[in-house]
Design goal:
With about 290 residues, the protein is an all-alpha fold. The chain is about 80% helix and about 0% strand.
């Protein structure tokens, strides 16, 4: 008698097969449920904001007063500046902290405490970070500024980069470190020229994911950079940014502002989507 006939006659096999079919069905329904809402959100954004995205004025005109035509040039430029400065501040700190945890913090209580605090900061609401920067910086200088906004975004970037760097460096085989040490290479050269190169794609993926996260943050910028209706690249003054402008325009009663808010929301969503696709592509290439 063949094994297939025996398995078909086995009650335990039939029960497991029914359970397998049931769980696969539930998983497929859950997948379709999630994809449905994702497609609905993207479809709504493109339907409502596609007209604004297609207009060239969105990218070179300033935010308008009610009833006037305009764009989001100052908000786009402000978001690019804030995200760039925040990434430049947070990335070196995150990489160095992650390097310490992976390479030097394998023993002792400090590494464990640092990982715990980093996980807390990673899951902390962004509005708490905004209030923290407001209390320690904005209230001291007496005004909102781009520097405060960039600092708040940097505090969001740091835990993401720390976690990614720590995890990626742990995946580097110890045999590479031992071979480097056997050749008489100092530890700092081993880290820079061996482990960083081996984990470079994963670390870059974490940086891109951190940038994608801060691109749409509104709450911390409301307490730090605030907003500016005019073109301004002065980091020591209030600076316009897309999340705050979207919040302000969406809450207004003016239809022209609503259209610009939809366009800004679609622009941020497509940018974050492209960053996530790029991060996934880099990580897959590494594998």
């Amino acid at each position: 008698m063949s094994s297939s006939v025996v398995n078909a006659a086995n009650p335990l096999y039939r029960a497991r097969k029914r359970l397998n079919i049931f769980l696969l069905t539930v998983s497929g329904v859950a997948l379709l449920f999630g994809l449905f809402w994702l497609a609905w959100i993207l479809g709504t954004l493109l339907f409502e904001g596609g007209h604004a995205l297609a207009r060239a004025t969105l990218y070179y005109q300033m935010t308008p007063p009610p009833g006037a035509d305009g764009g989001l040039a100052n908000a786009i430029a402000g978001s690019l500046i804030l995200c760039s400065v925040g990434t430049l501040i947070g990335t070196p700190v995150g990489i160095l902290a992650g390097t310490y945890l992976a390479e030097f913090g394998k023993r002792g209580w400090l590494a464990g405490a640092t990982r715990f605090l980093n996980d807390v900061l990673l899951s902390a609401p962004s509005i708490v970070i905004g209030l923290f920067v407001y209390s320690v910086y904005v209230t001291r200088v007496g005004h909102f500024s781009g520097f405060a906004g960039a600092l708040a975004l940097a505090l969001i970037v740091i835990p993401v980069v720390v976690r990614t760097t720590d995890d990626m460096l742990k995946l580097v085989p110890n045999s590479l470190r031992e071979a480097t040490a056997a050749l008489g290479c100092p530890p700092w050269k081993m880290i820079v020229f061996v482990t960083y190169r081996a984990a470079s794609t994963g670390i870059l993926t974490g940086i891109l994911l951190a940038v994608a996260r801060i691109s749409g943050e509104t709450a911390p910028l409301l307490f730090t950079a605030l907003n500016n209706q005019f073109w301004s690249v002065n980091m020591n003054a209030p600076m316009s940014n897309l999340p705050t402008v979207i919040f302000q325009f969406a809450m207004s009663p003016y239809q022209d502002w609503h259209r610009l808010a939809w366009g800004g929301a679609a622009l941020i969503t497509l940018t974050v989507l492209m960053l996530n696709i790029l991060a996934r592509a880099l990580f897959r290439k590494r594998d």
